[in-house]
Amino acid sequence: MDLIFHEKQEGCLCAQHCLNALLQGPYFTAVDLATLGQQMDEQERERMAENGVDSEEYQNFIRQPSGNMDDSGYFSVQVIASALNVWNLELVPYNSTEPRALTAQNAPQEMQAYICNYHDHWFTIRRLGRQWFNLNSMLTGPQLISDTYLSVYLAQLQHEGYSIFVVFGTFPDCQAHGMLLIQPAVQVSQPQRVKIEKSQGYRLGSSSDDPDLERALSLSMGQGSYNEPNRSGSKSDEEEDNDLQRALQESVRESKITEPLPSGPKNSSVTQDQHSGGDEDEDLQRALQLSLQQENNSSDNDLKKALQMSMECLDSDSTAGTSNTNLAEIRARRLRYLEKTNSKSTS
């Protein structure tokens, strides 16, 4: 697999990567393809000028941008066909009625290579040795394709809107082809998708806003089960889990915001801005203060209960008037109860 030439995606230079993967070497650069595109633009301009440079058709033509290339690195199928013509290679539409195309449709595994295009993205499927490989530049490396899967894969690509071309001719010699004839490749791990940053201006980036394009790109990389974006408005399980996690975090944060300070006045509370910069030490200190407050409250409640009982005894004596219990006995009972409660709180 290491001998197979494969270029990973750079910007919007998929046409260059496609051609070099097909020819198995760095045969073309973006400058080479741009030169071919400019030559084709000039030829088209000369043909349009035959009817006169003052004609409406010519004036409309020169106001239009080039259909063969643009500043992002895109190149048309005409430029690719012109580049392959240098090596006496020819492109034939896979779904045409041309006899060679019909042969390819009946026995796709008998061909040498295919070039696939969708939404300005180009990639190569080529046979090396006796095996087929997906050499898509959007993958981190070559992807092995079985003969059985090849025809299904091409049918899927067509269904998704890809234009497929069969490549005919004699390819340049490459070391990978000879080595794979002797020792076939084994796919140890599947290649991953190359991540393209939006800042690079690549039209077919990994976060494309076009779901059809995203599906086709996934299919071109052998991902038959593309997860289509949810258009019904319902959330996936992962999104719901994330929402639940955010809700839990928000509830914890709000509980910290509205929690009263133990040492402050009863009506005072900590505002959100005051707590936003708090750290773990402050939370630990608050927890200790709360635990101490609970212990103090427990002791205070016991003391209040004892005092209340003593007051009830006094009230009972003053209203009855005929009780035989004297004040000295009440005081003794109260002292015994207070000593008992104090011993519990200290222990």
UniProtKB/TrEMBL annotation:
One of its GO terms (biological process) is proteolysis. Residues 220-282 are annotated as: Disordered. It is an enzyme of class 3 (hydrolase). The gene is LOC113210777. The active site is at residues 14, 121, 136. Signal peptide: none annotated. Keywords: Hydrolase, Nucleus, Protease, Thiol protease, Transcription, Transcription regulation, Ubl conjugation pathway. One of its GO terms (molecular function) is cysteine-type deubiquitinase activity. Its EC number is 3.4.19.12. One of its GO terms (cellular component) is nucleus. PROSITE patterns: JOSEPHIN, UIM. Pfam families: Josephin, UIM. Residues 1-182 form the Josephin domain. This is ubiquitinyl hydrolase 1. Residues 220-233, 265-275 have a biased composition (Polar residues). It is found in: Nucleus. It catalyses: Thiol-dependent hydrolysis of ester, thioester, amide, peptide and isopeptide bonds formed by the C-terminal Gly of ubiquitin (a 76-residue protein attached to proteins as an intracellular targeting signal).
